[in-house]
Amino acid sequence: MTARRDLRSDAGQAFPIYITAVAGLLFLALALFAVGQAGATRNGGQTAADAAALAAGQDYRDQLRTAFLTAIADGGAWDDLLNGRGLGVGGACEQAGWFAAQNDAEVTGCTPGYLPASFTVTVRTRKPVGDTVIPGTESKHATARAKAVVTPRCTVPVGTPAPTTPPPADDHDEGGNGGDGGKGHGGGKDDEGGKDGKDKKPAVDLRCDGEDVTIDPAHPDLFPDAEDLFSVHLAD
């Protein structure tokens, strides 16, 4: 009888230990779940930041293409535009905000950079981590940051003159015979030359990702796409 009572006594003393161990394991599991939930929220925030930064860079890239090809068509200077400079931010940060919202986050900062052109975007998730065994997570939001860089794909081949804005045409036929020539046969040639020569802008030769590209202002339908002129990628 004594031995039996001792066994029952040992079992009774071990039971609270088992309960404590199970409770500890349960708490550890819930804590790991909380960590995983926080990690998922953080990953969602990073995805939103990446998408927002890329959207800003792509919008700026589209603006660069438009301005660059317009300058070529108008015979203006385009070297800064080809290098990703010479424009304001425009609606790039608004695009970042829209894409962040699609990923359930909001933009808290959008900072443009230059040399090279870039956009650094910070976001905050709209939803908190939620209720967990760790205090404070019910109101904890994730924040994330991403930087997108706009890099030119094209360069001007060696030996190509730098583009410049041509000066406005002057009346070099002022007075004297020059003025009379403008009215006579010679003037007619000048007018014809203006139509066939001055109004026709020269084609531009570029080297894009190792390939020769010619942009002819006379054929705007053949202008390259924005992604052919500039790349947009996330920086480390």
Automatic annotation (TrEMBL):
Biased composition (Gly residues): 176-185
Keyword Transmembrane helix: yes
Keywords of the record: Membrane, Transmembrane, Transmembrane helix
Keyword Transmembrane: yes
Compositionally skewed regions (Basic and acidic residues) per UniProt: 187-210
Region (Disordered): 155-224
Domain Putative Flp pilus-assembly TadG-like N-terminal: 12-59
InterPro entries, per the entry: Tad_N
Domain of life: Bacteria
Signal peptide, first to last residue: none
Transmembrane segments: 15-35
Protein name: Putative Flp pilus-assembly TadG-like N-terminal domain-containing protein
Taxonomic lineage from the root: Bacteria, Bacillati, Actinomycetota, Actinomycetes, Kitasatosporales
